[in-house]
Specification:
Elements: E1 4-7, E2 9-10, H1 17-22, E3 25-32, E4 35-43, H2 44-52, E5 57-62, E6 65-76, E7 83-90, E8 97-106, E9 117-120, E10 124-129, E11 138-141, E12 150-152, E13 163-164, E14 172-177, H3 193-201
Parallel strand pairs: 1-5, 3-7, 8-11
Antiparallel strand pairs: 2-4, 3-4, 5-6, 6-7, 8-10, 9-14, 10-13, 12-14
């Protein structure tokens, strides 16, 4: 998997976070590997572009050194949803890490011919792998799905160097859901008709049916 490079600089100590954001720079932090946390800053345009890719592993270039990192948390503005702070966790090439990757669905379920609809229960999945083995996405072929059938995590073909959580194996990724049955409208009796019909059918006590 190719890792995008993010150019960073040390966060200025004399400028607060709000002023930085006004200049189009997002305050971030680089931590982990039993080393001191480093406050850094990244241009919002670069950061937004990197986040848009959906990748979680990046290389941060800072002070002439490149750090392989995993996105730990992204704080966003509650209204604009723009990133306002990102925490990056250092990782090692020889140590497995956990990261969520997108799921790509290919094909069309057989059940669609009977009116079925493909419903996604999951759009991404967490994998465990060395950084060099992390896939950009996981592919799920749904072309063999019949009506009411589904795909589970255990159905994903084996990917070299990639593991899935044992507890996730029975999770449903997608299903081919049957079409909803159309409700047949019941005839509604007009007020007064039902009583009139009953009165006609049943003679009043003491009366005889005339011929």
């Amino acid at each position: 998997m190719k890792h995008d490079i993010l150019e960073a600089e040390r966060k200025p100590s004399d400028i607060n976070a709000i002023k930085l954001r006004e200049k189009g720079i997002i305050p971030c932090v680089l931590f982990g590997e039993k080393e001191e946390s480093i406050p850094i800053a990244i241009k919002e345009s670069l950061l937004a572009k990197g986040l848009k890719t959906g990748h979680k592993i990046f290389q941060i270039q800072f002070d002439g050194t490149q750090y392989l990192v995993n996105i730990d948390t992204v704080q966003r503005h509650p209204v604009t949803r723009r990133p306002i702070h990102v925490a990056f966790h250092r990782i090692k090439m020889n140590e497995k890490t956990k990261v969520s990757v997108p799921i790509h669905f290919v094909g069309h379920p057989i059940g669609e011919k009977e009116g079925g609809i493909l419903v996604h229960q999951m759009d991404k999945i967490e994998v465990i792998a060395l950084p060099m083995n992390i896939p950009e996405f996981v592919t799920i072929d749904v072309s063999d799905l019949v009506l009411s059938a589904g795909k589970h995590v255990r159905d994903i073909p084996q990917i070299a160097g990639v593991e899935f959580h044992e507890d996730d194996m029975d999770k449903v990724i997608c299903t081919c859901t049957p079409p909803k049955a159309e409700k047949v409208a019941q005839p509604v009796a007009v007020e007064g008709e039902e009583g009139a019909a009953a009165a006609t059918a049943a003679p009043v006590e003491g009366e005889t049916k005339s011929e």
